[in-house]
Amino acid sequence: MARDRRLMAREGARPSYDPAGPDRALRAALQDLRTGRWMAMRALLADTTNWWQWTQRTQVLAAAAAGTDVVRAWLAEEPGSTHAVVMHARVAVERALRAQRERHRRTHELWIEAWDAAQSATGAAPHDPVPWVCLLALAQLDPEQRWEEHRAAPPEPMLPPGPWGLLAEAGKRDPYNREAHHRMLQFLYARGGTGRLAEAAGYAQWAAGQAPAGSALHVLPLYVRVERYRRDSGHDAALDLHWVAEDAAREARRALHSWFEHTHRGERSLLDLNHLAHALWGSLQFPDAVRVFDAIGPYFTPPPWMYRAPGRDRAVEIFLQARERCRAAADGSRP
Q: Which intervals carry biased composition (Basic and acidic residues) (predicted)?
């Protein structure tokens, strides 16, 4: 039966990128939001009862709402809504980060607006980790660490100073919050330099080492490895060696055994699944990669495949080639 499903998947449609992935309720809310309505978003968030899903859904909704006034309209209609206040902070942060990436002249202004919105959300939703995740996300706009809260002493001597207090506040509300730790990684990347990437790698190993079985933090080292690969992508001749090294293979196995094998399908981030499949394929662990490709199903995410070749269409081709090679090898066929 499993073999039949794999054969059908081989002959089926190309995988698609969908920010909602298999979350049908989120997809419906996104469709409503894109037409300028917020009622489905409000209903979805009211029905979201666990922090990992709340964090994920608010992030995806904010990315879709950042170019609209939908959340502003919701907040104006229901100024006492805690969920609307949190979404307002989410959208403000998304706009500030986009402005920074585009080198927009209003970046600093949008940063301050986002910081104010996130601070307000911490008071309106004192038990919610997302306002603290928002403040962590803004830390990457301060790579020189001019703000005191961005240069706090680390919990371990080998780690660099950073927004550790913000991370701790998110952790008090949702221990091992996935996005919070990814935001810390982005802060460390923003500080720049090869040595700083080594700091990010040390941080990812430390965070994964603290995490219980089933935590998405076990996938963090794979993201740092992709970031190093991305920065070295001008040196094509050595790229494949990056993935077959013993430490790379060990990181992939650890993510498989400590995260993937302890989680249910609906709990897994599509980005994490794609990073794990990519790492297992790159380190030639084909049978295990097939298990992850099967869990990915009809969806894919452009990162990390897009770093093998520019462009989303090429990313799909790389994904398909990797999946086919892994399945052929696992079936005992020639790739």
A: 1-13
| Strand (E) or helix (H) holding 39 | helix 39-46
- CATH of residue 48's domain is 1.25.40
Structure tokens given for 4: 């039949």
| 162: β partners | 152
Which tokens sit at 91? 């959208």
For residue 147, give its domain range. Answer: 21-191
In Å, what is the CA distance from 316 to each residue of 87, 132, 230, 231? 32, 34, 17, 21
The residue whose two tokens read 């897009």 is 306
Q: Are residues 329 and 284 in the same domain?
A: yes
pTM for the whole structure: 0.93
Quick: pLDDT tens for 207-263.
999 999 999 999 999 999 999 988 876 545 455 677 888 999 999 999 999 999 999
Q: For residue 296, give Cα distances in angstroms to 3, 220, 226, 241, 301.
A: 16, 18, 19, 25, 10
Q: Are residues 140 and 246 in the same domain?
A: no
Per-residue pLDDT tens digits for 284-323: 999 999 999 999 999 999 999 998 887 667 999 999 999 9
CA distance 156 to 54: 30
285 CB neighbour count, 10 Å cutoff: 18
Q: In b/e form, how buried is each residue of 299-309, taking b as 16+ CB within 10 angstroms?
A: bbbbebbbbbe
Residues 186 and 211 in one domain: no
Spatial separation of the C-alpha atoms in residues 315 and 320, rounded to whole Å: 9
Domain finish residue from 191, 216, 244:
191
The answer on 230 and 314 residing in a single domain is yes
- 224 lies in the same domain as 187: no
Among candidate residues 191, 215, 232, the one where a domain is terminated: 191
